[in-house]
Amino acid sequence: MLLAGRSLSVAMMVFGFLFLLGPILIVVVSSFTSASYLTFPPTEYSVRWYAEVFSLSWFTRSIVSSFVIAIIATAISAVVGILVARALARGTFKAKALVELVVLTPLLLPVIVLGFALFNILVYFALEGNNFVNLIGGHVLITVPFVVRSVWSAMAGTDISLEEASLGLGAPPFVTFMNVVLPMARPGIVSGGILAFTYSFNDVSLSIFLTGPSATTLPVQMMSHIEYSADPTPAAISTIMLTITLVIFVITSRTVGLKIFAEK
Questions:
Q1: The whole model's pTM is what?
Q2: Which of 19, 151, 204, 243 has CB 3.0 to 4.6 Å from 85, enough for a Cys bridge?
């Protein structure tokens, strides 16, 4: 009976991994086809579609835009998220519950609803032409909750007596915040920042409402390409984006360590 239970657990675990990783493996393998359309498994393997990707005029422009927007949005979200998390973790003001609700609401609502609402607001105030600024603002809106939750959790688990000791020894509040609070909250800041950057870089649902002639993102351009073409170019781009994500996690592993996601 015990052996049957363990076998069932292993089988369910394997099925779970296949369910999660199967589609990704199919996309990666399909990107190396030599055919002019998506096929799995490929009859012949080739890297022709990777060469095609770098020959597309919109690829370089959109991937640079995605990186810049994600970096700026993550930086702003980190600053705002740290301050809000600090207030929620240590504050005792009356509107604390309201602040928590407002900040974390983007996690509760479908992103496409937020995008449509934000688009209508921008149209009402005749600001829809500022695509780059609008994209940054929209991405900050949906990434701040990730930073707040991560940093809030980290700050809530820290020893407040260390802050009190620093203040008691004469350190100004700002010095205590920079030299005591932030180092203790580092795991939450790093993990929240990585989650925010990844989410911003890969977002489609909100970005599609905010893009325009002056600025767009890679995922939105990919979706537009899929609408008019059935070639394997999007599979090659998806593999490139997957590689970028893996590189980010490898760098994180070599610098601060992946255990940063589990630390409190």
A1: 0.81
A2: 151
